[in-house]
Amino acid sequence: MSTNSAQKVTAEHLRRDAFLYVRQSSLRQVFENTESTKRQYALRDRAVSLGWPIERVHIVDNDLGMSGSSAQERDGFQHLVAEVANGHAGIVLGLEVSRLARNNADWHRLIELASLTRTLILDEDGIYDPGQFNDRLLLGLKGAMSEAELHILKGRLQGGIKNKARRGELEVPLPIGLVYHPNGSVALDPDQQVRGALRLLFDTFRQAASATATVKRFRQEGWLFPRRIRRGIGKGDLIWGPLEHCRVIQILHNPRYAGAFVYGRTRGAYRQGTQILGA
Description:
Blueprint: H1 11-15, E1 17-21, H2 27-32, H3 34-41, H4 43-49, E2 57-60, H5 75-85, E3 89-93, H6 97-100, H7 104-116, E4 120-123, E5 126-128, H8 133-166, E6 178-180, E7 186-188, H9 192-208, H10 211-221, E8 225-228, E9 238-241, H11 245-252, E10 267-271, E11 274-278
Helix pairs in contact: 7-8, 9-10
């Protein structure tokens, strides 16, 4: 790969726009790893030094807080790929390959489109022309290393989680009516209304002997049942609503109410782009 930037940035590239892609893997990194974010934004000056007017250096940063393991949920990356495919990009800038993609399929798709449209790719180490064999080979190796790094990081994380689970010390979301005590043990929810609703459900089931009859009784009496918002806006808030049949089944089959710790009863798998949960 030639290290002379002038040999790669041509007038044809400068007639098109520059696109700077900025990404952090989680919102926590966005707030805590501020230096990494600053370094990514600073690449705009690199584009200017190569000849692009600052007003034609477009920053794509709407994937901040998104994992790079897949392009499916990353609107910013998909927009970037579309701009490259349409021949609007003269150069794509990213601090490193892992910022652009942690998945070889997504990375090679970008490289292929950049090669077809004669779009340059720039990272902290230099400028690459995907149309040149040596540059394309190096970009492919960088992508493979980025994906391998993600695999190793996930393996370490999962290993730590499983070790905690084996000791019964892993804190996982508790079902309604149970909370974590400050010492780490599981205790009943201090909210008397929540405890009362849960006790009412179990008592009604003992009398009715079926989940369907339990739901019917709740609806006849106008009794409501609580649930907590697990994520997003209002996380932790308590919401009361009609009792559903599936909710009764989940509660009756949950071992935590019997004082048992369980982990790994379900797993996630992807099939034709759709996530499938199976036992």
